[in-house]
Fold these 4 entries.
Entry 1:
Amino acid sequence: MKKVSFILLVIFALFSCKSNNPTLGIENGNGVTNPKKLNLSEKDKKILTYNNAFSLNLYRGMCKSNDNSNIVCSPFSASALLGMIMNGAEGETFNQIRNSLGFEEFDRDGINSYYEKLFEALPALDKTNIFRIANSAWIGENTLVEEIFISDCSHFFNATIENVDFRKEETSIDIINKWAKTNTGNNIKSVVDHSMINANTEMVLVNALFFSGKWASVFDKKNTSKNVFNSVVGKQTVDMMEQAGDFKYYGDENLQILEMDYKENKYCMDIILPDEKSSLEIVTEYISKQENWNTLLQQMETLPVTVTMPKFDLQYSVELSAMLKRIGIEDVFNKSANLSKISKENLLVNGIGQTSRIIVNETGTEASSATSGTVDSELQSFAKYIFTADHPFMIIIREKEYGVILFMAQINQI
């Protein structure tokens, strides 16, 4: 049986104001002149509910198999790639993918329509923040692919369809990596290598996401100082940013949660910080239940908060096949795979990998380091509530109106 490789790539970079990085161009806006509104029907909202549940569950699985490293992922991107694969599946293979995504009560057309709406609207919600979604299908020159699969990928997922000669390994690797580099703002230069592509490869599917956002309330560089982050590997001296203002916030005996908006308020970052008596493991387990996550969002209210958090630049790669098998997607990886809507040839998935990056700072460039480790007295006296992310925490980046979970990360060390 021949193998079809599905490679998943996601890259997202977060900046709070102007960047000197010419690949981003966020200081000139994102090129959107007429922002679009994301309009989801009642059926779409139901699909989204299940989609977010999949996101939380996948993230939980990644944390359980983690060795105290940082985690950076986009469950949304994984879901989108599985949606593309699902369009090529039939029978039990189709059912396993659909059911594991939580879509068992919806047909193929309804699911495709849902993804199409997201891909069309999310990159154009505002004029400021850059959110790019790029899909591509790289098909071997001698592979006979069903026209309906190519049509669905192009129409619903706005995918670029290209032929490559996988027998020329070096050339095909260079072509795909060049596409990835272009569609991730130059941030990731290599997503495939000789371990993934060989003469037996029939197809590679790639999903790339890139997000560069400006904080609605920026951090002033003069308040950035060297301070201690209590990581899983011990105390680290890092650059800690600080500001005071009105933010949506909630805290109890187990955790604190803070919502930080991006300009134009279409996207936000939720920072979830375990209490000293709790742990990131306990908090992750709690939030993985969607009803708990929804309750936390409802409990937040706008309050005066002093925020202290580290700057960081993290990259993370993971092979998702084992985790997907644990949640019920099995046949697509073995000889039972039914991918007959992709090709009449016997195909199976060789692997699904994800590469992610997140950059969080005040300006998008390295700031000059201050020498003081003290808290500005004006900032400290301003707020009744103190949010100090000086130990491991998690973040969720989402679209605000409907709550589409786009990215998740666990910061264990800087």
Note: The chain has a mean pLDDT of 85.
Entry 2:
Amino acid sequence: MPNIIRTVFYRRVRLNDLQQISRDEFELACGICDTIKNIVDHRDDYIKRYNIDPEFAYPDANWSKDGDNDFYDAYRHVLKKEYNIINTLRFFTQSFTGYQLRSLSRSEGKKSVEPIPKNLDDILDKSAHTPDEPIHKYIAITKSKFLPNYLVCPPKKILGEIGWNINGNIVNSDTYTNQEHINTLYETGIIDKLRHLSEKGQSINILEIGSGYGGLAYHLKSIVPQANYYLCDLPESLLFSSIYLSISSPQFKSIIYDGTDKSILTQDNSAFKFVPNYMFDDLVESKHKIDLVINTISLAEMSEKQIHYYLEKIKDMIGDDGIFFEQNAIFDHSIKNLKTSLSEFFPYRETLVAKSVSLFKRVNFADIWSNQPIDKIIAPSFRPFRSSAWNIYWIGYWLTNWSFYKAILHRVKKRAFK
């Protein structure tokens, strides 16, 4: 039998390959800039008027405005409301992801706001001529025929979302990160449970605290389109997510909550609802039941007081039937006992090891937390891959998955040339 050589041809998605935003989309983004700026400008007055604890309301830890802060440089840059800036919005979101799209590389030591060369595509042809490690990892975790097609979630070809063309989809490091979250939520049974409740006509409410530029929200809303999706973050951060989601997901209504009409928060209209962090109590006081609360990375970036405040409120919001999904690493500037703090508020915990991503080294591990036994909230029937037959399958899958070995090889080469 002749040797079979598997060759994967990669083509980079260039900036010139992307769809340009329309004039109406640009005007929409400019209106969002004005709305967010107005909220930020009146934040001090709002906090004093409603006697909100400043230690909770204002940015802290590595989001503090003190000193040189790349995130606020990006925020002010987008507020300029220039077409070329909005059209490449994703070039300025590295503070959320740790990945700089403009150079297709990690963002350490690089600034968000720098001139974009007119020949950027030509520059990347030389500096990023081969896919990096996350691309091979993405292929590995989406290659299985047992991952339903609707769970493979590529970003839209807009707003500067460059990367690599894999089966017609744009893939970059951020694509892989979001896909890893989706795989984990699926294997845990959370996604199928939410879809089941939706099919029964029940209202679905998802709350993401620290939603970044909106990448995970974009994917999860496409999987559970009936959900009311709340994004709670610093208003400066909501500038990025509200523009990104309003343009990339125009089929869903986007509402920026400014504290004037609380009824907005309880309307069952399958919308994206953007809630500034210091108005979080309005959502809590609405007594709106939350089925799924999500936090990835940002809890570990908050002060201890902010963490405890959120955990206390989340505990009440999820009640007996909801789930809190979090995936956090412990950084040098974060509190060291984050998981311990979580266990003080939630009696039930399950550490998640998704089989489709289990062989890749990670610095942050996902857990789900609840007020009731997790198996009573997520029925075993919603969880795939639990039988011994599936375990045998996954062993064989990883042993024969060439993309997995390419990802490992890429890591070895990277360390060898350091």
Note: The two ends are 41 Å apart (CA to CA).
Entry 3:
Amino acid sequence: MDMKRMMMAAALASVVLAPAAFADSGKGKTGTTGTVTPGTPGVTDTRLVAKLIPTTSQDPTFEGHAARRTGAARDEFEARVEVPLALLGEVDPADVHPDLVLAGAILLGAGVAISSRASSLLEFQIVYGIMVGGSASSIFVPMMVVVTGWFEKHRAIAVSLVSAGMGVAPMTISPFAQSLLATHDWRSAQMIIAILAWVLLIPTAFLVRRAPAQAAAAAGVMQAGDNGMTAGQALRSPQFVVLAGTFFACCAMHSGPIFHTISYAVACGLAPAVAVTIYSVEGAAGLLGRLIFGIAGDRFGAKPVLVIGLMIQALGAGAYFFTRQVGEFYGVAIVFGATYAGVMPLYAVIAREYFPLRIMGTVFGAASMISALGMALGPALGGWVFDHFGAYGWLYIGSFAVGMGAAAIALFFPPFPSQ
């Protein structure tokens, strides 16, 4: 069974299984609303999932609530939620097809919906990690590969604009989740967002079209500039090693500050409702950052722009160490949000410059899987820092160091074949 059929089968199976999960509706130990005694293992009335609800990757809106109410240490909570997503990684869409995006849309809503009926923390993490992690893999990588195939000129800005949708979530779904949780229990709030994901994503998935070069590659037609490199050769190449290493370090650097800054702001005395807006500011800045870095990537080259962006990103992460007031948080959030969002699309652009389109799904999927390990590492280490030192200072110092390391790795990119 090929990848697209397997993903569609999994999506349809999740829809068939969903009614059985809904029928439990939190019965038994958790009661009708899922409430358990604070400090005991299991899913509570706390909005456990709010850290993950708003996007398929990461939203830290209620991470502090979840960790406190489940009685789990921050590093334990973050490792359990993030690692399943990282271990699943990105589905290898060597045959990139719009059906993968449709399957991902179905799985996303199903994963969020079914996990809303979870009766324990472990059950929630397994369901959410596998289903939502799988959905992310079958949406993000195919979309990036498709757009690199459609555009030869102005590729950086094209990829940046397509990826800008991810930056909309902190500005929209995070505040929406906050408002839902003010009037609903977390199970109902998560179910509403699951339905919203289906309503928005499933119709949109039918608009995705293969690039002409992709269709030709699938038919076995050799494209101009294709050097005949196999997927195995690509994954062992110096280009891929540098790409994956930079991607990993970049994500390890920014994931900790993204996840923990709301809790850090609350610890500095900001009201939770105000602290959440910091994440929204990062998201808004990210939209502008994608535009700026996309234009710069086309004008000056993706590699030098990536190196500069990584250095600025590291400085932004380190600057959080010195912030205490709301205005300071907003200022740093603008710089940090613009750079971490701005550099992310450049990895797909660089990968496409090095590798032929027919293996881009495999190559970029593998690089994204490695970057997901970095995304898992940052929040877990940040939680460990807080649990052991009672403060976040070393998180931001460490993030600065790792970010500079990412920029140093990127300096070792070989010249592009076209150069």
Note: Confidence is low (pLDDT under 50) at residues 1-59, 61-95.
Entry 4:
Amino acid sequence: MIRTVKRKLAGNFIFIGLAQALNQFTPIAILPYLSRTVGMEAVGAIVFSQVLMNYLGTVVDYGFSISATRRVALHRGNAEELSNLFSSVLWVKGSIALAVLLLLAIASPLIPWPVLIVLLSFPLVAGKVLMPQWLFWGLEKNSTFVAASLLAKLFFIVFLFGFVKTADDAPWVNFALGSSDVLVGLLLTVHWIPKHLNVKIRIIEKRSLVQFTREGWTVFVSNVAASLYLNAGVLLLGQYVSGLNFGKYAVAERITTTPRLVSGLLLQAVYPHASRLAIESGKIAGEFISWFRKLIILLYMLCAGALFLLADFLTFLFTGVNDVLVSSYIQIFCILPLVVATGIPSYLELLIKGKNKNCMYVFLFGALLNISLNWLLLPLFHEKAAIAVAYLTEVIVAGGFVVMARRLNNHAMIPIYS
């Protein structure tokens, strides 16, 4: 049985990994091309807009990447329930996206970056509404979503290399990246999912939508708070440094963000299976969490060493020059993904045991601490403050998850579910 489980998880990880590599790493992978064509200052504006849209996308997602995935995994054989769930998620996400777009248009004059680049980046948010990755993850039909993601990114790559040649083309980078997801998402939502999964869009009663949003509230607050503390340093730093210096910092931060994205990928790959284990067998669930903890810590110890040793090579690869400042940022950031990874297994424990409020409190504290310290220190110490606050916040958040999980399990590292 253990071998079967590991093979299944390996398959989930590979396919979800490919999907995440296409969706999350594409903005990072194109940095070498952009730094050589549109220039570092334009790269800074593009990355700033991506970070802002990533945060707004988290608001629109409303935590469905976790809460809806779990419900799909539990009701995967019930087409009626899946249709109601699918429709509810679309209606809620669509409504939030429209509200976010309106607020963005109103607030855009206050953003200290080219307004055109920022506004044309909104399709990055719209794509999160129409690309139902949570449905495919919950059903563990990950290969289909990988194919859809690949198609979207092929559309984008053709546009990028065909039309983006100078700094004047910079506003269209994020627009094309998001629009490719919108196009493929429409094809999935309107045609493929109803035809092949028998999951259809329906009109949902207002009462049901309100109840649905209430159920996902704690996960939503947790995800927004987590996104806020992850992105606040970059967003606020853009107010205090030049476009060139921000571009250099942003490139290094994006490079070292890649392993942190992988930790989220690992969590998403194991979460549906861990949720079912927690219901079926407490002992096996505990053994699984223990195995997952050892795996993720070992992987990120190796990752930290690789980032430190390859900093100069990565700098030249992504910028086209041997920039000492970018290289030093990469080396300073190299331990941060390991810090994040230490808290992931405990976060998984809390989620599958229904302790969403505990997670919410940790994320909220981390967000408030991060924003407060950045607000106080960034005007004085700029990049140094952003780095220090990022480390302090991640240590506290990871430590908070570990402490809460231990308390809930009678101070044991392996959770007791039954």
Note: The chain has 20 helices and no strands.
